[in-house]
Amino acid sequence: MKAGFFPRRFRRVTGVLALTACGFVIFAPLAQAAAVKGVVSDGSKQPIASAVVYLIPAADVEKLAKSPVDRKRNSANDEPMEDSLATNRDKYPKGRTDRKGNFSIPKVADGKYFIYVEPSDKEHLPGGDLANKSMTAAELGKKPLKIIVSGKTPDNANFVGSSQCLTCHGDYASIKKTKHKLGITVVGKPSKLQDHSRFPNYNAGLDKLMAGITFYFYGFDKGRGFDKYLISEKMPADPATVSFTATFFKDADGKLKFRTKNAKDSADPERTYPVEMTYGGGVHKQRYLFRVGDQIFPFLQYNTEGKDEYRDRTRKPWRDYHADWLFNEATKKLTNPPTAKSFELECASCHYTGYSLSVTVGGRFVANAVDDPNGEADINGDGTPNELNIGCETCHGPGSEHVKSPMAKKSATIVSPGKLASERATVVCNQCHSRPQGYLKNDQPVNKENRMLTPGTSRNDYLHSHTTREDAAQNDFWGDGFHSRAHHQQGTDFIRSKHYLNGNRILSCYSCHDVHGKADVKHQLKMEVRDAKNSLCASCHKDVSVKPHTQQKVGFEHATQIYCVDCHMPRTMLSGAGIGKGLARKDGQNYWMNDITSHLFTVPRKGNKAVKGVDPGRAMPIPYTNACGSCHDVDSLK
Q1: pLDDT tens track for 415-427
Q2: Mean pLDDT in the chain?
Q3: What is the enclosing helix (H) or strand (E) of 366?
Q4: Which of 15, 63, 453, 496 is the most exposed place for a label (fewest CB within 10 A)?
Q5: 1-157, what's its fold?
Q6: How far apart are CA 591 and CA 583, in angstroms?
Q7: What's the CA gap between 186 and 377, in Å, rounded?
Q8: 207-225: buried (b, 16+ CB within 10 Å) or exposed (e) per residue?
Q9: What's the sign of the alpha-carbon dihedral 623, 625, 630, 632?
Q10: Taking the domains of the chain in order of start, what are their residue ranges?
Q11: pLDDT in tens, 39-82
Q12: pTM above 0.85?
């Protein structure tokens, strides 16, 4: 056959010619662009018509990851999918669904893509359950895709309480065992939405108070934060340094109360307060909520891992928590706490389900939460208890319309975070696991109507509508300005990590955490992180083995069992007393291991350990000084 001559039956075939070493011409077909087809529906199997299905190149998301995440409104890289679309929407392959939800994208070039759905109706949210893992064009075209999108809570929906949710979704009753549901407990009377069985020592601090105890508050230091006083169960060596005492006791009515007594002025009348609720206790600390009029206030902190012999005042069993609200150092008189510092005004939005805030005729702020017959306490006086902890609707949105809607509309009236792109799912958690300031100018991320975000809100809309300061202040980070120092900043860390911004798989909080508490694993994780197989990490990082990994990174193949999280999730943040007594140094100081893990997933180097001039006892805990330091000499490590 002569070169260039083809029988008629071959002439329509697209390809290229190639000359072999023997002089023969061969025909090589061109790679065909893949066609991507599928159907979009919601959880009730209702087709989503007129939705646009985008293929977002993984390479574009990888470009975003090359710049540090800004964390501010209008940031160009804190929402992997939506920021990519904002820049290149018109350039991306896309298809539109027909009335049966079917779509087709006829020609897709080779490469990797995230698949992202934008519904045109007002009943569904963008994203879809396939949005967070990229696929090759070949994988996308292998068979028709089935994409499920989340519903959206209607604007007229109201909160109904978790008890209502559990009447149909009883298989999620495990939430009663989670710390989200156990955060606030009425003293001696857990609600029917609370099960403390996973935390047998939950009330170790409360038990000590119920047995009767007196605390001496002394050594006032106005330069400190919430712990301006030293606290002791014994009279200090210098009684003149004591400002007041607080004696806890179980009264004749069976209720826990405490009495304050002025140590500077015996004529000053004593004051007695009822302790109504505990605040925390599941892991590192517990505080106590006492009532003054129609408001409650936190006081005193019990550190679960604290010990009296620890030199650092923050790491002892008992720590002052705003005792300065109960004593005026200028007048040397006992006082009541300032109404502007109530728990309802300063803290409750991240705890109460259906949080709202109103102003009384007298100018006081009064918080409310959804009525629930099995709730913790009746705080609005209507005769029905309120749900004072994080319930189903905090993450899924108010459920009244979901309850009333027919089966075919059920999914369209409630939010399913698992069917959202990570950026919209993660912000639900991040609103409280970061340190923004809302329109009350405190750490509550509430909008002008004093409401928390509705699940499904975009991160940028949240930052615009719910924050006046988008995230933590500079003093909430260590001296390197990067690693979080204050607790509940896991979200601040996470969105700056490679797990959140990459071209392969974009994780959400629920990728690792079992939000419903079905798995009886510590910290509501889906699997163990510290077992022989590093099970949770290995569920994605299947090709990583610790021994060769540490040989490559630090030049030492560890024979002793260490875990991925020992190095990649050091405990940089402090909530209670920290873990352990600290590692001794030659100078007699200690490096401490804190108790809240970093969610940056990077390994901080030894040079990050402290700001110049900061003593080791207050230095940033890093793997070298906790996980590594338990076997190696800290000072010899580089």
Answers
A1: 999 999 999 999 9
A2: 91
A3: strand 365-368
A4: 15
A5: Immunoglobulin-like (2.60.40)
A6: 5
A7: 7
A8: eebbeeebbbbbbbeeeee
A9: positive
A10: 1-157, 198-349, 421-496, 513-636
A11: 999 999 999 999 999 999 999 999 999 999 999 999 999 999 99
A12: yes
